Amino acid sequence: MFGFSMPAMIIILLIVLVIFGAGKLPEIGSALGKSIQNFKRATEGKDELDLKAESEEGKKA
Predict the structure, then answer these.
(1) In the chain, at which end, N or C, are there fewer CB atoms within 10 A of the end residue's CB?
(2) How far are the Cα atoms of 4, 5, 6, 61 from residue 1, in angstroms, in the given order?
(3) Predicted local distance difference test score (pLDDT) of residue 54
(4) CB within 8 Å of 24: residues ≥ 6 apart
């Protein structure tokens, strides 16, 4: 994965754990997941504004 060996990935993850602490890791993972979702939506041409407009139109009908 990206040219990193498994021991290198483990060392990187341990450094991240030491820097941010165990309590922040779920928040970081959640934020990363949301940003990937938003990126995928943006590349598909679906903006949040378009999605909100569609949902509001559905409620009015």
Answers:
(1) C
(2) 6, 8, 9, 48
(3) 58
(4) none
Residue among 3, 25, 4 nearest 14 (CA) = 25
Contact 52, 44 (CB under 8 A): no
d(CA 40, CA 49): 15
CB 58 within 8 A of CB 50: no
CA distances in angstroms from 42 to 5, 8, 15, 32, 47, listed in the order given: 32, 32, 32, 15, 6
Q: Model confidence over 20-49: pLDDT tens digits?
A: 888 888 888 899 899 999 888 888 876 556
